[in-house]
Amino acid sequence: MSAKALLKSNFAVEAKYDAYFTGRHVQVTNDGEALLCECGDNVGVVSLTNGQVTGRIHCEDDQVTSIALSPDNSSVVVALKSTTLQQYHWPSLELIRSFRSYHRGPVTVMNWDTTSTLLISGAADSSVRIWDLHQKYCTHSLKGASGVFGAVIFDRELTKRPRVYGAAANTIHVWTLQAGSSQHDNSLEGHHSAVTSLEITQDNAHLVSCGLDRVIIVWELATMVSKKVVPVFESISGFVLQPPGTVFPGAKAGDGHIYALVVGDKGIPAVWQVDAGREVWKASAPVLTPPDKVGVTLINQVTHSPSLDSIIMTTYDHSVIFAKTSSLDIWKQLAGYNDQILDAIFVGAGESHLVVATNSIQLRIYNCQSFSCHLIQGHTALVLALCRHPTQPQIFASSSHDNSALVWRLKDDGTAVCIASAVGHTLSVGCVGLAEGFMVTASQDMCIKKWTLDKEIKATDTSISHVSVLSSTHTEKAHDKDINSICVSVNYKLIATGSLDRTAKIWDSKNLSLLGILRGHRRGVWCVQFSPVDEVLATASADATIKIWTLSDFSNAATLEGHSVSVLRLSWVSEGQQILSTGSDGLLKLWTVKSRQCIQTFDEHEDKAWAIAVSENETKVVTGGEDATLVLWKDVTQEEKDKALEEAARLAAEEQTLSNLIKDKKWAKAFGIAVRLDQPFRALNVMKALLDDCPDQLTDILSKLRQDQVASLLGYAAMWNTKTKHSREAQNIVNVLLKTRLPDELEELGAWKQTLEGLLPYTERHLRRLSALHQSSSILSYMSSCISLGGDLKDFHLPPVLDNLELLQNIYYSSANKEGTEMKEEKVEDEEEEDEDLRASVQDSILEVDDSESDENSGEEVDTGKEIEENDDDEGIDEGSYDDTEEYDNESGNRVKSSEVPPASLDDLNANFIIEKVVVESSDDESITMAYENEDQNITPKRRGFSMDQIQLETKKGKDSRGRGIFKDRGRKGGGEKFTKKKGRNLNGVVLKVRKNRVKVKKRATEEIEVKGSRSAGKSKRSFKSMV
Fold it and tell me: Which residue intervals correspond to the WD repeats (predicted)?
């Protein structure tokens, strides 16, 4: 395998074992699959198959005081310190209801009746309440007790004998339940200390109680008197009566006696025949090692699980012990709380077990499959460090605060036996190292010691009769401060140590002679490790760096910088090409030595990560820290490479399929594949072809997309919508989705809000553009009504842009007023009404033109194209600031303007159509000039171009009351008079010239609109308004 293939790139969390039991009580489900545990402000649900936490009931920072699982396993009730009761559905853990208990103190104990209908709760305020959780109300509130309740139970035959029993302090109280009331029947006094447990026998004839006063009392329920007091000589927190169909060790079935399994404060299980008052069986050893503290209760709870056929015990150190009912052999043990994890190593054949050193005097050996735990006692103080033998995986060593180091051998059953001890240091032994034939230790006394270790390792389990005491062969004062780490090289010739004095030192393993000092760290050194391949050493320091040192000249070859806090542990992987390190911030980092770069960072711990263990094949890594969490990591580098290759092959196949579909013009299938491949550009091309060929299929295509694909498609639409040429495709997609998807479905899309914010502004822009185009197309109809002011035109030449339109070809202009005839009064009124309608349809702007200009240009055609081009900045021309055809270059991001600029608004549209001057030519070279004369003020400055909204036709009815008149340069008198009398038109500065019946209207950009028509010389000349 090449070196490149060995490099790791990623690790994934395979399992995480954090604290799940910190209270006193647990509940086992009827199927024996799960365990419910009190854990601070939550309830942990643990799988009994692999020991992993499968769920939690979170109680919002409110301390859990008690839990109760119904007999039918349908619901779980959790009591909180705030006196609230919460009912959850099992196994979904959904909250059914939360209600006040009306206890004035925290609920300490709860219990169900056999029908899973009634719940009894006892509290620290000496009150007991009965709850009907089906009808959702409190049935009874029981009074008469005094003290904190330690146990409450229902009678086995509640329908025949409706009684409840509760133990408060050292007294047992009995209540009889009645409809709407209750009666306090008796107070059973016999215990001299707190009663911890109550249980009714199978025949429902006796009540058995135990307490901290070291006695068990049997009460006869018929007479409510004590039948037997059994001294057990130890405080008892709980007991289990022999269940039907099971026989305790030393007991007999069907002999009529009452047998009870008792585990007292000594931790030794015993079976008592309580009705006879004698002990029939006792275990040879305690189920756990007693603590060094006085007054600690070892066992908090003892219960029975029929599905597991096991006795379940909870201990003071938050462990859960499972023992077979018939033999009381421990077959499983779970550690609910590890406290601070200081070190961890893989041991056993195939690295089947994990040894963990926690903030306790016991070693915890976990089975890597079931994660059941064995607690191993050996040290008398906290265990600080662990080390595995390099060639024998079942041999490992531990060092402790008790100034000693122990050598262990792993047994087949998952426990371990001590085979050797090394005692000689004067202070705590902080680190230990194993090699072939010897062991080295380093202590807070600043000394390192070498111990001979040979025959103890070669011995087998059966040959061990006692613990060998090792002798130190060499001792050397190594550092000026505490020694934090020690390790032995692969060839066992060198020993390295790291200390708080900021140095690391290299020693000869034969005689512990000093070979070299490695200086360079600015703070203390926490860890040292030899490379498994090269002659280099890695050191981790509190200065947040990792340094690589060459052993030939003890120089610093490289420094790895990336941690922001102290680096606590490191380990070589990938045949010495990479390093795994942990820091005091809980981060796990993967480094490549050659590039000196951190290629991956993993964050699963919330506090200092003290422990790191790598399996021999480097497929698994375990980290642990002060957050009491063990994280099992799995190397997924090869899996990710395989998945990447498979994905590449799949993409290539789908790419080929997409190409084939596009070639065959199967747009519907091609569009779906393009969206699935996340290819926006190809999806756009397919969408264009789809809308051109078969737009009715779009709805069916979009209805078949998944939610994630719809979200991606909306993102495409938002991107396409930013460009005018792609807006059709984007708007079609949005239109179909808004019509076919419910608002709730759109809200479920992750980025719907952001997509909508991106769509709205550009959609409004496209709406304005289309509205402007619609208005510009409607101007033709308006132009036809305005042209009716002119004469009879037979040949009307359309401008190039209107050549194909038939609208203007159907316009017919009526003949001008007949020469020499008088307008009748009725005709005048009709014409006036027509002028009023025309006036109302034209915008209210006034066109002003210099009279002198009009006179100078009368009789000749005016070409204003150049002038308009030169006077674009004139205030009469408003180009408009909106350019809808703007696009952005994909590479540079610069705005690119199109040569065809549609108007963005009505003002911009009007600004593109300019009436310069209207000239009417007559065949007899006679012209009539109409101009506006202002009697009060001078004419405004010259203007060459005018927009539509600046035109207003002032209709003169009869006589011009404002002093406006029609002035005739040349022409026949009758025609001019009739023009004045009939129409009274004054275009306010528009100059009309009659010459050869030709009308020329010139617009900006030098486009000329010509309208030709034959007119008789006797017809009056009319002005008209030309628009496009």
Answer: 100-141, 188-223, 376-411, 476-508, 518-559, 560-601, 602-634
